[in-house]
């Protein structure tokens, strides 16, 4: 027996939940399918916090963040839930940083986003917990905020269900077929027919897209975040301590206290490449020590690690997103966050719904198409640090 819907969504992490929410909000019949339970910790959308910021390396990205802030505000209104905690953010460029501040400064200026440039001494005077090397350039953007990962994803799932979407956890899609003007999805519970499908399966996207002959050059890495317990947590309170990103190689980032008397930090792209179906959830001591060593130098009051958890990055070679239909299969739309997509989740939901319903969208998503060189040229040199 097969069921019929206007749209199916494969994957109910942050991106798929946002797409299901947006499609159902437009009165479409939607089924959302996930191979695991809702809120599971096997993918990329679990844990407490994610960074929402304006500072990015191109004006197009900075403009996209303006959409993101507006869409988070709409989600807060629609769900009557406070989701955005504004704490301010510091981009820290040590001397000879591997990531150049120039693009960030010019992109923020080009879009007209307010920010300040400070040196290490000025920054330490305002945020006394930091110990920054002489010559560090600091960009401060006051709207940088924290959004909740698991809670944000659950909120979008609740809104999707509220608008009538059918959410099916523990129902893996084992096969996808383009039926010409629609799709058929095979699941252990039977087939689903739909006018179109939005595939947001992140680390498993190639398994799902095999049905339409697509294999993307992706790498899944197993990242780790660590929570430290400061002796005096009040010094890291969100009212007085910002989130931060260390713009070098290795690159690190961290948060003020957020709902508990700990500070969270992690390395960006510091984990080993893994098979998402054969990966551990165990703590990696070497990764934790590498991070703790950096935190001890830059934020000495952070205290010792109290817990670490794992989470997956799925990286495109250019670290740009995928927001696009599969060429030759207009009814198959793909959304992939390239390990920096959570802040854009409500926006991606809206844009993916546009693509699924209208075949086009209000924002220029051409940089995120599937036939771009980074995804089609086998000799493309991957670069992940942004
Ligand atoms: C440690 C860490 C820190 C991060 N920090 C930030 C940050 O500060 N700011 C930011 O913007 N982004 C950040 N990100 C990135 C962001 O979290 C991800 O880009 C985003 O969560 C991806 O969401 P997703 O829904 O695409 O993926 P996922 O949450 O992984 O969802 C994919 C879903 O697809 C399901 N699935 C897979 N195969 C199938 C199948 N065959 N059938 C049915 N379902 C299937 C899986 O079960 C899963 O639930 C971070 C990521 C990590 C790991």
Describe this structure in words.
This protein is of the alpha+beta class and 386 residues long. It has two domains: 2-45 and 150-215 and 318-376, FAD/NAD(P)-binding domain (3-Layer(bba) Sandwich), CATH 3.50.50.60; 89-142 and 219-315, D-Amino Acid Oxidase, Chain A, domain 2 (2-Layer Sandwich). Helices cover 26% and strands 28% of the residues. It has nine helices and 19 strands. The strands form three sheets. Strands 1, 2, 9, 10, 11, 12, 18 and 19 form an eight-stranded mixed beta sheet that branches. The protein has an eight-stranded mixed beta sheet with strand order 6-7-5-14-15-16-13-17. It has a three-stranded antiparallel beta sheet with strand order 3-8-4. A hairpin with a 2-residue loop joins strand 11 and strand 12. It is globular and about 65 Å long. The termini are far apart. The mean pLDDT is 97. It binds flavin-adenine dinucleotide (FAD). Residues 10-16, 33-36, 43-45, 50-51, 172-173, 200-202, 204, 207-208, 223, 225, 266, 311-313, 337, 339-343 line the site of flavin-adenine dinucleotide.
Question: Radius of gyration, rounded?
Answer: 21 Å
Helix content: 25-40%
Tally the beta strands: 19
Structural class: alpha+beta
Helix tally?
9
Order of helices and strands: EHEEHEEHEHEEHEEEEHEEEEHEEEHH
Number of domains: 2
The low-pLDDT segments are none
CATH superfamily of the largest domain: FAD/NAD(P)-binding domain
Beta fraction: 25-35%
Distance between the termini: 47 Å
- Named at the architecture level, the CATH assignment of the largest domain is 3-Layer(bba) Sandwich
* The CATH class of the largest domain: Alpha Beta
Give the cofactors and ligands: flavin-adenine dinucleotide
Shape: globular
Overall mean pLDDT score?
97
- How would a crystallographer describe the biggest sheet? 8 strands, mixed
* CATH topology description of the largest domain: FAD/NAD(P)-binding domain
